[in-house]
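Exam revision sheet. Question 4 asks you to relate a sequence to its structure. Input first:
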Amino acid sequence: MAPGGFARQLSGTTPAQRRTLLAAALGWMLDAFDVMLYALVLTHIMRELGMSKGTAGLLNTLTLLASGIGGVFFGFVADRVGRKRALMLSILTYSVCSFACGLSTSIPMLAAFRFVLGLGMGGEWNTGATLVAETWPTELRAKAIALVQSSWAIGYALAALVAGIVLHFAGWRAVFFVGVAPALVTLWIQHGVPESGMWQEHQRTSQESAPMARAQLHSGSASFARLFLPPLLQYTVALLLANLFGMFAWWGLFTWIPPYLSLPIEQGGRGFGVMGTTGLMIFLNLAGMFPGYASFGWVADRFGRRTSFMSYTLLAALLCRFMPPRVHRRPCWCWAPWWHSSEPGSFRGQALLAANSSPRAFVPARWASPTTERAP
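Answer key, structure tokens:
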């Protein structure tokens, strides 16, 4: 379906559905904003705290590990208190911890705050995407999730802009202090976004029959265990490996691109400076990453999920070979959009643990649940 057709279908959705989509997209955009501030000020942190490159990479690894844990943890929280409240709690978690990062006086303090921030990061995607999946019609769900995913690029670009401006007038701590701003979004979510009707129906059913609720809880645990048993085992392992290597590639690259660009040439960098790095990162995200994320839903509908996933990932891998060598000090604008637009919304995705962003439209085809099957 062409984007114009989707726009017509979008106009036919209810205001509550559109507010739900906006809430999930804002949460994911601001998640990117807070999470990527670390990469954008990494050279300044390393210099002030005396942190080695290995330690800097380890701290980002802790954040990503925490995001996997947070995806699972907030999944249980969302089942307990509701999708909307869990979404708000995850946003508050990464916002407050981003502010706390600016208060860090040692590497262990920073590591602790980044770990808890990662819990909120994983939790936001899990709860936000679930809220959209349970609210939007089946025929629009893949495209709605693609739009939510594309907001990551906007958040990353916004983080680059804010970091460039704040670093020009203040230090890296002030950049993290700005990261508390996303917490204000929870005020609107509280009053303007409805709770998932499916979750509310499930709660009413559980309250009417406590024995049935216990049986459903036992059934849920058994269903999770089935993911690692035939015939689902092969699909589970395949998606885990695909997302493992996808996350390895994306995070390994984009954690280090900002410090690589901003470091002086004599220290192994490109010497772009703060504003040069800011300009290139904004361009990469808006001209490359955003179209790649946003287009994946339509491409998957046209050519199939598996074919699209493999094609996007293969194209990204091939274009990595043509990353420019260190021959110029100015940004390589002609190369940036072509490489980055090959990155699909599913490339750095997370399938089962919802640690980051998975091809949500692809996973339910093999792991359908009663809730997603009954979505309107």
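Marking note for examiners. Confidence is low (pLDDT under 50) at residues 326-361, 368-374.
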